[in-house]
Amino acid sequence: MYQGFWHFSHISYDVFSVEAMMTMQNTFQAQPTDIYLITLPKSGTTWIKAVTYAIVNRERYKNSTLSSHPLLAYNPHKCVPFLETEVFGKTSVYVDGCLPRLFATHIPYTSLPQSILDSGCRIVYMCRNPKDVLVSLFHFTNKLRDKSRCQMAFDEAFEMFSKGIMPYGPYWDHVKGYYNFSLEHQKNILYLTYEDMKEDTVNRVKHIAEFLGYPFTKDEEARGVVGEIVRLCGFKSLSEVNKHGDFREGVPNDAFFREGKVGDWRNHLTDEMTKVLTQITEQKFHGMDISFEVGAHVRN
Ligand SMILES: Nc1ncnc2c1ncn2[C@@H]1O[C@H](COP(=O)(O)OS(=O)(=O)O)[C@@H](OP(=O)(O)O)[C@H]1O
């Protein structure tokens, strides 16, 4: 645990380790044009990476046939790198000196490199109903090939999650950290939920584009560019592209695409588990204008 949050150790995950993050805290230099996509694991990282990549690079690929778009060939995690992997030299496929630099990270607010906060760059934060995060994380870890390290029963996973133990957790503190930051810095951070994005993808995509300074023109809207991006980045399209192969050793591409639905927790949590997580969430988010109910919009 470091600065109130759980992290991997160097032995478990070198570039994502707490040691790597601590090094970066002091040395990483953000640029004002940078864009950071910040999430907790299993909160929509892959989706927001795809959407943002498609928005920001749409001019670049506008003449390419649909089949040559990078998102139809590569996992979105290859198109938008994690900050940690980039800083520690494991470059991704599509980071080739283009501006803006597009990074994703799970680093909690309290440990984010200061230069990111000082640079005035744009941050998109996406969170998701904790119950669905737990379920998604449970399935993901059980899909990893290194079974000895990750296998656990659902009630064990629940126990750990509700105690705050997950990578970059506690869940509630992570969400709250960025929520509080967003109250003071609405120009710099867009706070989204997975549920809102699911419910009204077209308008959310437009909103993200505007926030990032890449608004769709009337002509683009008339040509259906927004709809194309929504389809390209939709669960159906991405899960098809990523049906085979590995993202990295032991992590199959398809592990990032399971159901892509809101509310699958209802198929996993007992009434008692539901009660516990509801209580913790109500208590931790007391006074915050945040809801994961479909139809309830988070501040934007
Ligand atoms: N395009 C798209 N649209 C909607 N939903 C999507 C999409 N891509 C991935 N997913 C679902 O997101 C869940 C994985 O979360 P993350 O992408 O945050 O995982 S990770 O942190 O990058 O490992 C995981 O959710 P669950 O299906 O509930 O497990 C994925 O299925």
Automatic annotation (TrEMBL):
SUPFAM superfamilies in the cross-refs: P-loop containing nucleoside triphosphate hydrolases
Molecular function as annotated in GO: sulfotransferase activity
EC number per UniProt: 2.8.2.-
Superkingdom: Eukaryota
Key word Mitochondrion present: no
The entry's keywords: Transferase
Domain (Sulfotransferase) ranges: 32-288
InterPro entries attached to this UniProt entry: P-loop_NTPase, Sulfotransferase_dom
PANTHER family named in the record: SULFOTRANSFERASE SULT
Family: Belongs to the sulfotransferase 1 family.
Name this polypeptide is given: Sulfotransferase
Organism in which the protein naturally occurs: Ambrosia artemisiifolia (Common ragweed)
